[in-house]
Structure formats: C-alpha cells, structure tokens
Design goal:
Elements (H helix, E strand, L loop, with lengths): L1 H10 L9 H8 L7 E3 L6 H10 L5 E5 L2 H10 L6 E4 L2 H10 L4 E7 L4 H5 L25 H7 L2 H11 L4 H13 L6 H10 L10 H12 L1 H8 L3 H4 E11 L2 H15 L7 E3 L5 E2 L2 H6 L7 E7 L1
Parallel strand pairs: 1-2, 1-4, 2-3, 4-5
Antiparallel strand pairs: 5-8, 6-8, 7-8
Helix pairs in contact: 5-12, 8-9, 8-11, 12-14
C-alpha cells in the first residue's frame, strides 16, 4: 500500500486529465451544499473541482467499475470521505433509485480513462503489446481474448458492422481473417493483422475494431441504454445531468433519450439545456488530444 500511496502523491495531478472540465462546471452549476453523483468517477478529475465548490463530501457518491480507480479514490479521499461505490454505473444507479436517493447533479463520462489506455497490461490499446483483455472490471470473465478467439466468424462480423461501423463486406473479411489466424494472443498481433488487410488511412485501421471489441466486452451500449431512464429518478427538481460521450454510437443514445424524454409535454421529466453537443476547443485539444472526440450533453430535471 505504501508504494501505491507514493505513486498516488506523485501522479495525482497527472494521472488523468478530465475532458471538457470548464464546460461541465459551467453547465452543472455546482453550488455550496449541493449533492453530487459521479457515475464514472475514474480518478476524480471532475469530482475534485465540483466538490471544491459544494464542499458537501458526505452528500457525494463516486462510482467506478475499475478497481484501480477505486484504490486511487480511497487514497485520495482519506480525510474527507464521499461514498465510494464499485460497480458498473447501471447497477449503482439502480441501487440508488431503489434506495430512494436523489441528487442535485449527476455526471457520467462514458470514455475509457487515460490510465486504462496508458497501462499496456490492460489490453485496451495496440500502442503497446499486451494480452487481449479490455475489461474495465477485471473480475469479470469475458475479455477481448475470448471474443477474438472463441466467437464465431458471423458474430465477429456482426459486431464489426454494428460497433465499428464497418461496411458489411469489410466486416466479414476481417472476421474471416481473424478466424483463419487464431489463436491471436496480443493487441499488437491483432492490430498488425487488421493493418495488413487495410488500405492506408490517417488513423490506424484497427482503431474502430478495437472499439467494437471493447464495447462488447464491457456491454457499454447496453449499460447506457439501461441507465438513461433511471436518471430522472435520481435527480432532484432543478437537478442537472451532464453526459460525456466519445463516439457516435454513445452520443446517439444520449441524444435520442434526451429528445424523447423532453418532448412528452406535461409528462416530460427533463429539459434539454444544450440543443447541440458541446465539444472541446482547439486549446483543450492541444493540451489533451483525447478531448478531440468528446461531446457533452446536459439536461435539467423539471
């Protein structure tokens, strides 16, 4: 534990740069004493700044499904103690709804955290060689290795078409090549295979395939779909919810849910704050390139 504490002290300000931080603060409008739920707290980048304003640590719940993030948060908040919860955000949201707890602010950042990407052993990125993994919750059984090496050719083609948004013909070709070259053990082995079957492009051709595999490993879209209808139940009247997404599939789910919920007339529970998604400006992108694809949508409980 001592080694972790030393590493925490050295890296607490560098481990993760929160995206769209100034915009999150602008639209969530935290005030002293307000309650706060962070469904994807990660390493506390957004939570830090919000809790500095609210100063209501006992009225805050910080959740994450990654045990490494939980260890970090436990070390970070040793003196002032928000409630820490370790689960996927749907399970936590459901438990809080069933407990009758509601909040003035909710934040959900659906992106993979920088430490997950930068830690080669987690297998999220092909920038470093590692066993195919991609699990946000390392205690679950399903991982990227199982998807790549055990799923059928047709099932792989289906997820490449749906979640990598590849054309059907290319999705089928890549699935066939993967099945022909099994077993595939590492991130670089899979990325090199995809690249060898791809035309030149500015972005690595494996990027979207890795995204598709990560989505199914972590049930990312399913968890979002199940969580969105719970948000109004978790908000106090006048409460604000901010959601950050990183690819079009996530953003579409949030956009459509907000639009549907806000168009029910007198039965509407949410009012959309920003009609168009908020994106990072050039200065933020220069300082944090991962903010390039981030989109923020905000709604208010009626």
């Amino acid at each position: 534990m001592l080694g972790f504490e030393l590493r925490y002290n050295e890296e607490m300000n560098e481990v993760h740069i929160p995206v769209l931080l100034s915009d999150v603060l602008k639209y969530l409008r935290p005030r002293e004493g307000e309650t706060y739920l962070d469904l994807t707290a990660g390493y506390g980048g957004h939570a830090d700044k919000i809790l500095e304003v609210t100063r209501n640590y006992k009225g805050a719940v910080l959740n994450d499904r990654d045990q490494n993030a939980m260890n970090f948060l436990e070390a970070k908040y040793q003196e002032v103690k928000p409630r820490l919860m370790h689960d996927d955000f749907y399970s936590t949201a459901l438990l809080l709804v069933e407990s009758g707890i509601s909040f003035d602010m909710i934040l959900a950042d659906f992106g993979v955290s920088s430490p997950q990407l930068d830690n080669g052993e987690r297998g999220f990125s092909f920038a470093r060689e590692a066993r195919l993994d991609m699990r946000m919750d390392e205690s679950q059984e399903l991982d990227a290795w199982m998807v790549v090496n055990k799923w059928s050719e047709r099932k792989l083609a289906d997820i490449f078409e749906a979640y990598a948004e590849e054309r059907r013909g290319r999705a089928e070709m890549l699935a066939r090549e993967i099945c022909m070259h099994r077993p595939i053990e590492t991130t670089t082995e899979l990325a090199d295979l995809i690249k060898s079957k791809s035309p030149y492009s500015h972005t690595h051709p494996a990027t979207r395939i890795f995204q598709a595999i990560r989505i199914v490993v972590n049930d990312e879209l399913g968890i979002i779909e199940r969580t969105l209808p719970l948000l109004p139940k978790l908000l106090n009247p006048g409460g604000r919810v901010a959601i950050i997404t990183f690819h079009s599939l996530e953003d579409r789910l949030v956009k459509e849910y907000f639009k549907e919920e806000s168009s029910k007339g007198i039965e509407s529970k949410l009012r959309i704050i920003n009609k168009k998604p908020i994106i990072a400006d050039n200065i933020e992108i220069a300082n944090n390139p991962r903010a390039r694809s981030a989109k923020l949508r905000v709604a208010e409980r009626i």
